[in-house]
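Sequence design from tokenized structure. All designs in this work follow the same two-part layout: the structure record, then the generated sequence. An example of the structure record is given first.
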């Protein structure tokens, strides 16, 4: 599979996908692999989601890297039954990741050019940028959007993080529902983590 002589061409099309009351159509992908290089296109054209994107990557035995750039022209929250009233999102999403296929992963992702259109007004949230580093002895998480800034770093590895994940998810979900952020609660659940955060009134979390 990792040989430079491997050639592959994959074309996929979802003509109809029924999920509850939703009927997804017009979703496709076209991917090619040659000389360890992966390239492809993805698209969606239905009443829920209109997008087009490109992916490319490198597939080697000891390294896998990939990049994705997607333009979402329409994401209809009302059609998806997520919002009661008319709400449509448009944005650009890009991500890149690299792994040694053993014990290291580095990833970055950004959400930019965001617009949220409702009947009454149009919102333009700040761009969101994130980064993640996972190694046997290090976990690093970074996120920033407007005047919101978050850094989490610990010398504990991925295995230890996974044992704390359920507790952390519960804390974050409760704080989100209560519309508040408490670093103290997170530190109590993850005592060896160094957490730095600041937030004002000009960021997506505060705006919404």
């Amino acid at each position: 599979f990792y040989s430079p002589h491997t050639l592959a061409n994959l074309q996929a099309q979802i003509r109809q996908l029924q999920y509850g009351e939703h009927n997804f159509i017009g979703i496709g992908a076209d991917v090619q692999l040659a000389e360890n290089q992966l390239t492809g296109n993805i698209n969606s054209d239905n009443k829920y989601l209109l997008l087009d994107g490109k992916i490319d990557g490198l597939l080697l035995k000891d390294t896998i890297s990939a990049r994705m750039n997607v333009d979402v022209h329409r994401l209809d929250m009302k059609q998806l039954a997520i919002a009661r009233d008319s709400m449509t999102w448009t944005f650009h999403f890009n991500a890149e990741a690299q792994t040694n296929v053993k014990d290291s992963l580095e990833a970055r992702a950004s959400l930019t050019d965001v617009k949220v259109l409702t009947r009454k007004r149009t919102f333009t949230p700040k761009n969101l940028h994130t980064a993640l580093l996972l190694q046997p002895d290090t976990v690093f998480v970074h996120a920033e959007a407007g005047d919101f800034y978050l850094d989490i770093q610990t010398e504990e590895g991925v295995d230890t993080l996974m044992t704390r994940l359920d507790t952390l998810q519960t804390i974050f979900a409760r704080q989100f529902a209560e519309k508040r952020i408490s670093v103290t609660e997170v530190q109590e659940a993850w005592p060896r983590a160094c957490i730095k955060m600041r937030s004002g009134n000009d960021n997506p979390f505060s705006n919404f």
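The chain has a mean pLDDT of 89. We note this feature because it recurs in several other targets discussed in the main text.
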